[in-house]
DNA sequence: TTTACTTTAAAACAAACGTTTGATACACTT
DNA sequence: AAGTGTATCAAACGTTTGTTTTAAAGTAAA
């Protein structure tokens, strides 16, 4: 048995823990997720979490992966299309990551929970993921409405865009009860993205007009 | 000592519990709020909760009061102004109830928490409060864009409006870290209301145009 | 095989939670 | 004065939580 194989074997429990933790955390949030359920799903002993990661919180921090979200900004920026189109693309891709249950959106769902239910890791999440994509959208908005907009108004525009997107996730428990038949399949997500995109572009145009007067 | 005085005295503990519970629940959410802190604030014994209300959950249900929110719809409807103005008024008053810390917004904050963190009482809240005001806004939107809009698109418009408003509350832990200086005083709330109002009216106009084509 | 080290296992830990108990004090009726 | 029902209290209950302990099993080098 080679050294690599040994590592792979000994790392199996650690890897299984990470996979299981991502699922359980994203389904129940940090606080409601129990180490016992995570270990049960990962098929490891209860003590494994504190053996591989010192604490439940450190395990949670280890499950975080900001790359998909940050990659989204870079991907959108690479296209040489106009700012409006880039905003539409961003909203579409962001919603896909946020709402699609089949993809690796677990990451995004996990971070979305942090918004409403802060944990000690929230500071890191804001600094490394949320702040950059807020800045990214702020730059897009600046391009679209021109730079004559105030800092406060710019912030409100960014909040309007994210607010519309996040509501579908934050409000899910309510939405599910209001519209029990509503499912977030690909067609529905595309329709939502189209709506929010057009809605927001019209809103931004109005804001730009206001400031020109 | 009259019978009425006796009742007032014996009801004091119950009333203090309700007041304290509203504060603690709205600050920490249902789950994070502890019966011990509620009792400490109310200056009653720990057994009082189960004495007056059978359980923590029943106490929570007793703290709910949908009237301020429903009254808001009626008040806005009484003005005989056009639908656009009524929507602006609603957004303004809704944000005031949602964000103002000094008023009796505790109720609204408490219910807002339910959105992201469902408890067994959520069903009641949705049925008696959230569904009616969603329907109220849906009616306003219908008036503004005309009835030619599809049910799904109408739903998305309502979500866009509420999403923008709720983001300021749901996202508060994040917003606080992104913009530490931002405070929700009356001037800021009015500015937010003005922004969301104009942003949304422009969005709705765009939606109406789309459906006309 | 012995030795040293890593990984797993069951059990127990301390703390916090909502809830219940049983006793006590009080006001009012008979 | 005795009896009755209400309100309050400290204390403890039974769970559940994340974490730790202690020992056993497994693995690789000597």
Overall description:
The structure is a homodimer of 213-residue chains. The first copy, chain A, is an all-alpha fold. Chain A has 2 domains: 3-63, Homeodomain-like (Arc Repressor Mutant, subunit A), CATH 1.10.10; 67-212, Tetracycline Repressor, domain 2. In chain A, 79% of the residues lie in helices and 0% in strands. The first copy, chain A, is built from 11 helices and no strands. Chain A has helices at residues 3-32, 35-42, 48-52, 56-63, 67-78, 83-99, 106-116, 122-145, 151-170, 172-178, 186-212. In chain A, helix 1 packs parallel to helix 7 (106-116), helix 8 (122-145) packs across helix 9 (151-170) and helix 9 runs antiparallel to helix 11. The termini of chain A are far apart.
For the largest beta-sheet of chain A, the strand count, sense and barrel status come to: none
Strand residue percentage of chain A: under 5%
From the N-terminal CA to the C-terminal CA of chain A, the straight-line distance is 75 Å
Whole-angstrom Rg of chain A: 20 Å
Q: In the CATH hierarchy, what is the superfamily of the largest domain in chain A?
A: Tetracycline Repressor, domain 2
Largest interchain contact: A-B, 54 and 54 residues
Helix and strand run of chain A: HHHHHHHHHHH
Indicate the low-confidence ranges of chain A by residue numbers. Answer: 1-9
Overall 3D form of chain A: elongated
> Helical content of chain A, roughly?
over 70%
Broad structural category of chain A: mainly alpha
The CATH topology of the largest domain in chain A is what?
Answer: Tetracycline Repressor, domain 2
Q: What would you say the CATH architecture of the largest domain in chain A is?
A: Orthogonal Bundle
Number of domains of chain A: 2
Number of strands of chain A: 0
